[in-house]
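User: I'm preparing a small set of examples for a lab meeting where we compare how different chains pack in three dimensions. I only have the primary sequence for this one, and I'd like the structure in token form so I can line it up with the others. Please keep the answer compact; I'll paste it straight into my notes.
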Amino acid sequence: MAEIVNLARAKKQAARKAARAAADANAVKFGRSKAEKELQQTRAEKAERTLDAHLRETD
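Assistant: Understood. Below is the structure token output for the 59-residue chain.
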């Protein structure tokens, strides 16, 4: 005997699976990890501090 399948539930599962696949593809294409974002932010702040430290003060 065949297994009874709720079509609405099956459709929702298929939609979730497709959305997850699209999200994973976008994460690979565009995403950066939190650590990478923080590292870039820290490096930018350090570069700004270094530049400010080398500026001459004008009276």
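A couple of notes for your slides: The two ends are 91 Å apart (CA to CA). Helices lie at 7-30, 34-54.

User: Perfect, thanks.
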